[in-house]
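My main concern about presentation is that the manuscript never shows what a single data entry looks like. An entry of this sort, consisting of the sequence and the corresponding backbone structure tokens, reads as follows:
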Amino acid sequence: MLVVLSLGAGFAQTSNKPSTPDQKRTIRIGIAATMNRSNRQITPAWERDQLVRELQRLRADRKSIIVLEAVALEATGHDKASAEAEKKGCEYFVLTTLLNPSRGPGISGGPDGSQRSPVVIGNGNVSRMIAMDFTILEVGTARTVAEGATALVEGNNDTRAADDTMRFVAHRVATELRSSHPPSFE
């Protein structure tokens, strides 16, 4: 009789715990201040904070076990952002760069080198467009997890257009990190 009671007590204790596939996994992401290679006036820390806010809004998804935790970084460049993200316990960090789109193959130069500018296809007026380039890197290895760009036609306000592009970047970052992480149970 004592054996039956102890087995029943063991079953009651384990049945209250969530099963392993239902457990959430938190991923810390460092968000570096935005680099500006465009002719627009923005505040890099403000744009970084916009991305942090958007990622906090997208923190959890009902269909995913991945929970995203965005952490603001003061650094802008690759090396300093990687070191700061590591100190803050992040698994990944995101670099963003505001660019001017171009009609043909263009190159955008900056203090950390040059990179290709997004090319606009169609009849869009490039002087009224804004583009944001992003790269998600793994802390410690500097392996690129994902990269991309988003372009948007601006209204009458450069800051608002930059905020809107950050919203698109946040969705891409959340999607990429959730899709590149198969569930791992420790």
Observations:
- Strands lie at 25-31, 35-36, 66-72, 92-99, 106-110, 113-117, 129-138, 144-153.
- The chain has a mean pLDDT of 76.
